[in-house]
Every structure is written in C-alpha cells, then in structure tokens.
Amino acid sequence: MVHYPAWDQDEARSIVSGLSHLEGATLPILHALQEEFGYVDPQAVPLIAEALNLSRADVHGTISFYHDFRTTPPPRKIVKLCRAEACQALGCEAVVDELAREHGIVVDEHGGPEKAAVETVYCLGNCALGPSALVEGELLGRVDADRIVALCGARQ
Ligand code: FES
Q: Which segments cross the bilayer (predicted)?
C-alpha cells in the first residue's frame, strides 16, 4: 500500500517548475504530481497554467480528458472487482448489490483517503474462478461480499 504525503503547494510548485521546460510539459507534470501526491489537486491548475502560459481551462481540460488523473486524494486501499462477462455469469453483480445493501460500500464511489474503495475492472484473466478481485497485486477468485469487506480491512 502506498502512503502519499498531503498536498503541498510549494512542493507542487517546484515539481511544476522542474519540468516546465519540457516540450508538451502538461502531461509529464500531471504524472509527476500524481506520482508524488497520489492525485492532482485543483490548486495545481493555476500553477501549471502560469508556468506553461496556458489558460486554466486548457489545463483543466487535459486533466479531465485523461481518466487516469485523480483530482481527489486516493482511497487508502483499492480492491478491484471484476465485472466483465464471465464474472457476471458467476455472480459479481450480486456481490456488488450485497456490498451496497449490507455494508454500505458502493462500488466505484470513493469515501476519501481514510477509506478503502472497491473499483470496477473488466477481466482479470481469472474468468473460470470468478467473481475475481485484485488487491495489492494479489489475484483472488470466487470472492463474495464478506471477503471483499474483509479485504477492505474493515474499510481502513
Ligand atoms: S471476466 Fe472476470 S476475470 Fe475475466
């Protein structure tokens, strides 16, 4: 599990200025910020716009175009639950429903950096043993809602 430091505007500024000389610097800067802090805080937008002589709308547009960029701190832990066809046939949607109904865990909804989150993925290559999940690099088969809750570490 990766623990990121809290957003630090001075540190962000030095990351931005360290990369602003690159051609097409927006993406390298966004990646570097996300690598450092786990997300790109909205406070980065004016920094990047100013350093690269772009409008804030341009920077914002780039961030929202690429779905890999988070604009809020990442969850403490992420459990990826497969919801592709084979896992659907093996009951993954019932797991999703039970998580919401019995445990208040809404798949793909993030409760902030102190909570674990369950995210949808499409096929983990473990189709015969679905529903499949991936947590911290470990591939798991035949998961049910209770197992997911346990994997979330009581949502810590
Ligand atoms: S469909 Fe779920 S692992 Fe392939």
A: none
